[in-house]
Amino acid sequence: MVEYPHDLKQVAGQVRDAIYTAVEELVGMEVTEVNVTITDIHIAGDDENDAGTSNTESRVA
Fold it and tell me: What pLDDT does residue 54 have?
């Protein structure tokens, strides 16, 4: 999870680089492409669940 005011594009790039490096080191294969998709954005104070009691299902598989 990334909180405001972090740059989502920069964080996605860092995640992409980390996955790229980890796969190459662990598997020993050349990685040609890593795709990172942002599927949800939560804005603090935007709903009543900000107290830490979320009743929603996780979107991460």
Answer: 55
